[in-house]
Design brief:
This protein is an alpha/beta fold. Helix content is 48%, strand content 16%.
Length: 335
């Protein structure tokens, strides 16, 4: 793997790794071997300490790391087979969302996931994971096909949001995302959704309505990006770290709020440092959930899925003694 992009908070880690590399190149003596072992243990402890105490903005930086595994990486590392399906039968084939049949051990599944791209050409083709309406129409069509054959659906979410350009609006991106959410809520087959990197706005939830919603440890899942929130509240993206803290969108926060069901642990130092270990942990989670969900009656799955999303959020009801004028001014119901 090529040298990783260095994040600011990782500087102590890279400094210790440089010392360790220098020692490995030195003369091989018992004293040096002992020092190398000591440094290895210290490096693991330092990395664990840093990653256990990331700020919300630092978590965003990890989620956006250019070497972080993407959907196509997990297709290679998690599944035994994959056959890609293209097109929405209306406009075109959006490369920001990949769909296809896959096999995970004994389970045949449909996989739907965002793809950001690795090199410049692929990133332009995928628009950094920002899908057009046809991407969501493609996803819906393939998910309906999976439900028709009674096969589970696995969705990988990794997008800053749906594409915000004029062409996207002209082709009805908001309506398409709403339709996708509605259809996923009623599909009569098990659905597992995992936020593997960024989970931004409607672009994320457009393929994230499922029986199980999980996140990788250093992913984030939010109604808006930190930069967008800072621009609205503080009129400047410079306050993105403050916005990130206020949004409470890390896996720890969302598990506590009940927005997600599970957090999938990442390798020490983040998934970008060890793709295979990240894929192994993801595969173990998917296998366990599939084993449980395929046994449930379809009617129970759909009802529990509906109730799961109905319970999200906190509501405050105005007390009964509040008069009509106060209710009109303050709002009888607030979120």
């Amino acid at each position: 793997m090529p040298e990783l992009q260095r994040l600011d908070f990782e500087r102590p880690i890279y400094e210790m790794e440089a010392r360790l590399d220098a020692l490995r190149k030195s003369a091989n003596s018992p004293e040096i071997r002992e020092e190398i072992q000591r440094l290895r243990m210290g490096l693991a402890e330092l990395t664990r300490k840093i990653y256990d105490n990331l700020t919300a903005w630092e978590t965003v930086e990890v989620a956006r790391h250019p070497e972080r595994p993407q959907t196509v990486d997990y297709l290679d590392l998690v599944f035994d087979e994959f056959v890609e399906l293209h097109g929405d039968k209306t406009f075109g084939d959006d490369r920001a969302i990949r769909t296809g049949w896959a096999k995970l051990d004994e389970y045949k599944v449909m996989v739907v996931g965002h793809q950001k791209g690795r090199d410049t050409k692929e990133r332009q083709e995928c628009r950094f994971g920002c899908a057009y309406p046809e991407g969501y129409r493609k996803a819906m069509a393939k998910m309906r096909m999976a439900a028709k054959f009674g096969l589970p659906i696995i969705c990988f979410v990794d997008t800053p949001g749906a594409y915000p350009g004029v062409a996207s609006e002209e082709r009805g991106v908001a309506q398409t995302i709403a339709e996708s959410m509605f259809e996923m809520a009623t599909l009569e087959t098990p659905i597992i959704c995992v936020v593997i990197g960024e989970g931004g706005s409607g672009g994320a939830i457009g393929i994230c309505v499922g029986d199980r919603v999980a996140m990788l440890q250093f992913a984030y899942y939010s109604v808006i990006s930190p930069e967008g929130c800072a621009g609205i509240l503080w009129k400047s993206a410079e306050h993105k770290d403050k916005a990130a803290e206020a949004l409470k969108f890390t896996s720890k926060d969302l598990l506590r709020f009940g927005v997600i069901d599970d957090v999938i642990e990442e390798p020490l130092g983040g998934a970008h440092r060890d793709h295979r270990m990240a894929a192994l942990k993801l595969k173990q989670y998917l296998r366990a959930q599939l084993r449980e969900l395929v046994k449930k009656p379809v009617a129970d799955l759909v009802e529990e899925r509906y109730q799961r999303f109905r319970k999200l959020g906190v509501f405050e009801l105005a007390p009964p003694e509040t008069n009509a004028e106060e209710s009109q001014n303050c709002g009888a119901v607030s979120k």
